[in-house]
Amino acid sequence: MNKIYNFINERKPELIQIYVNERATRGDGIFTITIPTETSTEIKCIYIEDTQIPPELLSELQDKRTNNSNDIIYFYLCAYDMDSAELLGIKL
């Protein structure tokens, strides 16, 4: 997961801008940042609309949206194993 955190820290303004643009174009969703395998050096990023999010994750996301201000965006982080998955809120 450290690779993902470093990736975010190094590119935070760009990732936020991508999220904002995607949300404006496609509606509410989350930006996923994943590392496919333990040995992978590639990090994959994709914006997923609310209608494409699995129900249990969508429920967690909607709870966070309800309990937090509108200036927080959410990234879903996953490093090659779903046990390490995390929903990260970033203040704009």
Count helical runs: 2
> C-alpha Rg, in Å?
13 Å
| Number of structural domains | 1
* First-residue to last-residue Cα separation: 22 Å
Number of strands: 4
How much β-strand is present in the residues? Answer: 25-35%
Q: Determine the fraction of residues in helical runs and give it as a percent range.
A: 40-55%
**Regions with pLDDT < 50 over 5+ consecutive residues?**
none
Oligomeric organization of the protein chains: single chain
Write a structural description:
By secondary structure, the protein is α+β, with helices and mostly antiparallel strands. It has one domain (about 1-90). Helix content is about 40%, strand content about 30%. The protein contains 2 helices and 4 strands; from the N terminus they run H-E-E-H-E-E. The chain has helices spanning about 1-25, 55-65, and strands at about 30-35, 45-50, 70-80, 85-90. Strands 2-1-3-4 form a 4-stranded mixed sheet. A hairpin with an 8-residue loop joins strand 1 (about 30-35) and strand 2 (about 45-50). It is globular, with a radius of gyration of 13 Å. The protein starts with a helix and ends with a strand. The model has no long low-confidence stretch (mean pLDDT about 90).
